[in-house]
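#lab-general

N.A. 3:47 PM
ok so I finally got the sequence cleaned up, no stray characters, all 327 residues accounted for. can someone with queue access submit it? mine expired

B.Y. 3:52 PM
send it over

N.A. 3:53 PM
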Amino acid sequence: MKNYNPLILIAFTFTIFLIVIMSAKGMKTFTKKLFSNLSIINWDFNDIEFRSLGIITKKIIIKNLTLIANDEKPMKINSKKVKVNGTIFQNALSLGGKGNPFIRSISFENNSTSKIKIIARSTGTNTNRNLLITDINQNKLGSLSFTSTAELKFLPINFKGSIFLYSENSNIDIYQIQLEYNSTSPNINNYNITSNNESALISAVNIINSNGGTIYINTSLISINSPYTIYISGTKSGGIIGIKQPDGSYPRIDFINARNKGSTESGFTITGSNKYIKYLIIENTGDNGIWISGSKNIIDHVITRYNNDSGIQLSDNADSNILNYCY
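B.Y. 4:20 PM
back already:
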């Protein structure tokens, strides 16, 4: 039986109060201060949503990234381990050959001036192959040339609309795509937390519960001081992803201060569906590290340690959840 602390109601009421009393201009400023105008969207083909695809023979949309293929010109997720700038990548999207915006291509929306970063390689020995970046009419926005050695390359893009990536000639293996931008567009629900800021985390979670989106935690530690669980709810796709730190570690969400104040709550309580927590360490909670009663959620590469109960617990009603490399 879960005992939910009444303080969560106080925190929720206070959040609503702030939103009501702030002017539109004030709310925009508040959001900027908390999240620094979100700067990163990351698609890693080692993520479980991608690596389970195998051979791709139809249009598939995952995390707002569209993969375009058919039976005659398929693409494939392959296990091809490489090391780039000290990071190991296990899986790649093999484009399979020459493409265009309508076949053997990748597409996503670009809403502002941005920088596209891609980790890829040519599968031809000693052969450079070009990855084209175009609009739907094949107007060239740029290109990146890759050798048989996997490497990171980037290209500034000043274009608003659908962008397509495809090979000019033969196969290219793509390991990761990253989109960096400065934008206050309300259509991009992602948040970048770069300091030990509990309020920023709680506020961002409240927003993705309603609107979906991703919270990127790019700091070594966030300390939780308030003795209540962090609720992740709603049905729109959204979650939290930790960013690898310069020393090779991943962000810690530490509840020791809350526990010392008498908290007997789980760290995170997931009652929604289509949510995810990835690449985080969750520690020192008053109960479970993560408690799940929702469905179709993903917990991927998460360490839950030093908690007062089991690290991850699923309720009787939990359904079709995926736990991958959790310790």
